[in-house]
Predict the structure of glutamine--fructose-6-phosphate transaminase (isomerizing).
Amino acid sequence: SSIMKGGYEHYMQKEIHEQPESILQTMRGRVKFSRVVPKEGEAWDPYTERRIKLGGLAEYIPTIRRGRRLMFVACGTSYHACLACRQTMEEIAEMPVSLELASDLLDRRAPIFRDDMCVFVSQSGETADTMQALQYAKDKGALCIGVTNTVGSAIARSTHCGVHINAGCEIGVASTKAYTSQQVAITMMALALCEDSIRLRAQRDAIIDSLGTLPDKIRAVLKLDSKMLELAEQLKGEQSLLVFGRGYNYATALEAALKVKEVALMHSEGILAGEMKHGPLALVDEHLPIIVVATRDRMRGKMLSVLQQLRARGAQLIVLCNKGDSDIQDLCGKSCRLIQVPEVVECLQPIINIVPLQLLSYHLTVLRGFNVDQPRNLAKSVTVS
Ligand code: G6P
């Protein structure tokens, strides 16, 4: 089985380190990056040759565009991938987007209509809650789109159309490479939905170009492995760990906390930084370790003020920021620990940011002596509801 793990100790570790390749697989044959030099007499149009081709979705794009809203339905980490991409979807597909945890959608029997476009996101494609929600939406006459990692899975078979994320088999119960590939797939879907928009061209092309840089940047961020081991050494005896994020990176905070909970068996909570003053601030003291995701994006000013408020209460801060971010360094001083990551276009930054936090939860688990690939009480695919 060590051969199966490609020289790694655990599947989770292998799958974290596979992400430069798994992400590339998700994009392979679907994202066309290159500009083509125009033929003689033709005008140079730098935009025309950046294309997204999603075979399983192409003929449904006009229908999806005519829908009244996009509803994403998922559980666990797959739900976090939807949350991470919601803003991108709203901005570049310009459609109302709602998110549903499959079990909650079913509990509420929430209204769904024929002109709803429902996207079911599932690594395994077999999760019972998601599958039942799919059946429910289908009965309501909605168009059902699957985003799965498993060709031939129940969800892949029962949806009208979809995208396979092609991340390769994921064995560790805690989802890692599927999470980043799901984000790439949903972002590609958003790009495919706005292909005709001239107004959005510049933004769209910036995202496509940035997708092309992801594998190398993930390779770079994986080099933080030994730093994350060091941080895990410092944190392994803690009772609890908070993770703050907002905007694009609210999902990063929730997903990092889920990883710490489910594999390292340490209490952890992801907190929307905008809600800090409405409760969580009461928890802050000199003892509780807090990770703040503060990479550069349009939430900058607000994030700096969150950091200031946490500093003022003497919090034990660990700040995830972009490399060479001197504002953060100045603000946080020597006492605070930094996790420095490469920068990409803001809507893709969550794909980079989760990687060091996956490494942290992996090392915490090993140091605390728990089972990495099979956390107690959990299953890879929950096929009962
Ligand atoms: C289980 C797994 C999680 C996973 C969730 C959804 O709870 O332990 O890691 O995120 O199911 O699984 P799916 O296969 O639908 O993405």
